[in-house]
Amino acid sequence: MSKIEEVKVKLEAGKAKLVPGLVQEALDEGNEVKNILQAMVDSMGVVGDKFSSGEIFVPEMLMAAKAMSKGVDVLKPLLVGDTISSLGTCIMGTVEGDLHDIGKNLVAMMFESAGFEMVDLGVDVSAAKFIEAIKENKNVTLVALSGLLTTTMPAMKESVQTIKASGLTGFKVIVGGAPVTAEFAAAIGADGFAPDAGSAAVKAAELVKA
Amino acid sequence: MLTKRQNFMETIKGGNPDRFVKQFEFLDFIYEAPMEIDPEPGTEIKNGWGITWRWPEGQLGAFPVHDDEHKVLKDITEWKKYVKAPSVDFPEERWAAAIEHANSIDRNEQFVAVFVAPGLFEMTHNLMGMEDALMSFYEEPEAMHELIDYLVEWEISYAKQLIEHLHPDALYHHDDWGSQISTFFAPQMFEEFFLPAYKKIYRFYKDNGVKIIIHHSDSYGATLVPYMIELGIDVWQGVMTTNNTPELIKKYGKQISFMGEIDSGTVDFPGWTPELVAEHVEKACKDCGKLYFIPNLTQGMDWGSFPGVYESTDEAIDRMSKEMF
């Protein structure tokens, strides 16, 4: 098994203590930084798929994301003049009136692992705060809104519509959360929707590459 | 006509109920029993464990605060240093109202019920935050086992007080084990960390006169049902439609009953209507049938989030009882 393959296997298994050493060994063998990084991004895609299919659960996903993060730390100094994120910046938050953050945090980890630079605004985020963050950050390609409560679905609708009507461009809007459906996402004018954290990263990459 | 308690027993034993059990009607909760309190809407408290709970205005409930300033346990390996259980030795006068309430209940009509929350898993993430708690099962399993053992000891010491003072017939115990589409952890992880822990707690209650154990988890949890049976849980309250409840009833009904199937999120919101509630109640009753099933709003407790929803659900269940019994 090649070192890059070993990195992939251990990352998918969530071995956060082993992955940095293996990444270093892969570098020492002469593998290119971008190839190692891509292998790790691919592995997180596998982790996302397994989560979506119910094969693994939140702890396994968190451990894989941690392993990814530790592995990327080894590569970071070698990415001089470049950026790890190739998919642009994602502004993310749970909509106004909603304090749930677990789902949002999981999605943020998966997005970061897929290649987004994340700007996490936290919970209870107003439409105005989303717009302010879009203006303040460079290369915003995605805005992601989360909501867990049926009672905060109107806030999600208002935020999406306010963002869309702001005149700001260059990004797509994705929504998710327990009560959100593809139909609701389409009805409020979002560009995309995903039912869980695993498939959200795939959908997000699709949206910004489209 | 059967009493509420008799009708409940007929339902969960597969006998001859004469109507649907109407949500929590079979229980009379002794809310006066001393326990950790939640903040009032718009306020914040630090409870006996040191956990800060905040209930922002306009929200449906309180949330534990887990920023660096407020998180009780930042490193699971140091839990002994930071986790200090509050005393369960309340002054006798704190029990007076609860005892009076318990004594006033006709136990032929209803069960004298005690309410315990948060549960063991909830306590771990209330102390540490969800991400830290879930990763600690992998990273520091021994420390997690120790912490859970400590929480079990505390729960049993509180159970002793409840039993000694109130002689409850039923326990309603809270611990959310999943989201609406999945459990938070693999069944194997549940088996390792929570099965032995809950066995101790639920066995203690049953060995000390508690006849019925109702466990609340308003979530997906179908894969955990065999463990619930092993734990001696009589009723899983909070079963959501995502579980395929009719199938669960067919497969496990003789061993455990299911209470819920009316997903609170679909009916309990500001724009609710009695017609919408009636539609969901009818579907739940017709899909799940008369035995091993109690129609109920999944969120738990004997009230709704928005005025009138719980009562409207009761009325719709009454109508289904007339139609189906």
Q: What are its keywords?
A:
heterodimer; A: 210 residues; alpha/beta; 2 domains; five-stranded parallel β-sheet; 9 helices; globular; B: 325 residues; TIM Barrel; seven-stranded parallel β-sheet; three-stranded antiparallel β-sheet
Quantity of strands of chain B, as a count: 10
CATH topology title of chain B: TIM Barrel
Rg from Cα of chain A: 17 Å
Question: Class of chain B, according to the CATH hierarchy?
Answer: Alpha Beta
Runs of chain B in which pLDDT lies below 50 for 5 or more consecutive residues are: none
Low-confidence stretches of chain A: none
Order of helices and strands of chain A: HHHHEHEHEHEHEH
Structural class label of chain A: alpha/beta
For the secondary structure, the number of strands of chain A is 5
CATH fold field value of the largest domain in chain A: Rossmann fold
Structure characterization notes:
The complex is a heterodimer of chains A (210) and B (325). With 210 residues, chain A is of the alpha/beta class. Chain A has helices at residues 3-12, 19-28, 33-52, 58-75, 102-114, 127-136, 153-164, 182-187, 197-209; strands at residues 89-94, 117-120, 140-146, 172-176, 192-193. A 5-stranded parallel β-sheet of chain A has the order 2-1-3-4-5, with helices on both faces. In chain A, helix 7 (153-164) links the parallel strand 3 and strand 4. In chain A, helix 1 runs antiparallel to helix 2 (19-28). The longest helix of chain A is centred in the N-terminal third of the chain and has 20 residues, at 33-52. Chain B has one domain (4-35, 72-324): Alpha-Beta Barrel (TIM Barrel), CATH 3.20.20.210. In chain B, the strands form 2 sheets. Chain B has a 7-stranded parallel β-sheet with strand order 1-5-6-7-8-9-10, with helices on both faces. In chain B, strands 2-3-4 form a 3-stranded antiparallel β-sheet, with no helix packed on it. Chain B is globular and about 60 Å long. Chain B contains 13 helices and 10 strands. In chain B, helix 5 (130-139) crosses helix 6, helix 6 runs parallel beside helix 8 and helix 12 (274-288) packs across helix 13. Chain B is of the alpha/beta class and 325 residues long. Chain B has helices spanning 4-12, 79-82, 92-104, 120-128, 130-139, 141-166, 187-193, 195-207, 225-230, 245-252, 264-267, 274-288, 309-324, and strands at residues 27-29, 44-46, 52-54, 63-64, 111-116, 170-174, 212-219, 235-239, 257-262, 293-297. Chain A binds chain B through residues 14, 16, 54, 56-60, 62-63, 66, 97, 99, 102-103, 105, 124, 149-151, 178-179, 195-196, and chain B through 56, 58-60, 63, 130-131, 134-135, 137-139, 179-186, 189, 265-266, 268-270.
